[in-house]
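Quick one: C-alpha cells for this chain, please?
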Amino acid sequence: MKHIFLFCAFGFAILLISFESSEFTYPNYFPKPVYNFSQNPLKKETIQLGRRLFYDPILSADSSISCASCHSQYNAFAHVDHDLSHGIYDRIGKRNAPALMNLAWQELFMWDGAINHLDMQALAPMTHPNEMDNSLENVISRLRNNSTYRHYFFSAFNDSSIKTEHVLKALSQFELTFISANSKYDSVKKGLVSFTEKEKKGYEVFLQNCNACHKEPLFSSYSFSNNGLPLDSTLLDYGRVSISLQSADSGYFKIPTLRNLRYSFPYMHDGRFKTLSKVIQHYTSGIDYSLNLPKELKKPIQLSSEQKVELMSFLFTLNDSSFVFNKQYSYLK
C-alpha cells in the first residue's frame, strides 16, 4: 500500500491517506471534517481520475489551461507568478487564486463563498469567461469522445457514459487528498519535537492576536471577515456582499489558512502583498477603518519589532514541504 503520509506516535496512527484504499483519517487534534464522504466515498480509481482531470487542459475552451495552471502544487496549489489569476487568451481575473488544502473541513468556497459544496466548486472556473471559459456540454462531449477517459470513468464509476456529476466528484476526490498536516507545528502537536524559544514566543503572539480568525489547527475559521484592506479602485471588489446581498458583508472575504505561507504568496484576495512582512505591517499600521471592521481589528495590533520577528518564526513552522513536494499530487503521465 502506497501512502501519502504515515506518522505514528504513542502507538497509534495519526495521519493516513491512501490512494490504494478508501481510508480517510487525520490527526486526532483536527476537528471532524464537514465533507459528507457517504455521498462520494473515496476510491483509488476515482482519485486518480480526478488527478488526471486536474492537470488536463481539456477542461478549458481552447485546451490551453488546466486547474493546475492556477493551482500549482509547488505553491501549495496557489500561484506566485502574478497577483491576479490568468485565464485562456491571458484574460485577467480580479482575484488571486487561493491555495488548496484541507478542503474536507470547508463548507464554502471561493473568496466570496459563492460555492457551497466542494463537488460544485469546479463549475465556477470551468465556465467563467475569464478563466476556462468553457461549457459543461463541451467538456462532457470532449471526454466522451476520448476512449482513454471512457476507460478511466468506467474504472472509477462502473459507467463509461461520462456524466457531469462524475467529473465533479472525481475532481473533489483528488482535492480531498490535499491534506497538509506535516509541518513542524504538527510535529510539536504530535509530541515529536519542540518549538525553539523564538517560535514559542511567536506562538504566544499568534494566540493573542491572530487565533480569533486563523484558528488552529487548520489556521482558519473558514468564515468571512473584513480585514481592513483599502478598496482597490480599479478592481472594485467588495467581496461577499455580491453573493449575500447583505450590506454588512461589504469588504468581507474568506479567511485563508496560514499554513504553507512560504509557498502561497502573494497574499490577500487580490495578491497585493508580496511578502509576509508586508502582511504583518498591514495589520499593525495599515488598517483601513470602516463600520464593517470586526471587533478584533477595531484597535491596532501593537507588536514590537522583536515580536514581529517572533511571530514570523512561528508562522514558518506551518510550512509543510512534504505536502508541496509529494509526488502523489503531481502530474500523472
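The radius of gyration is 20 Å.
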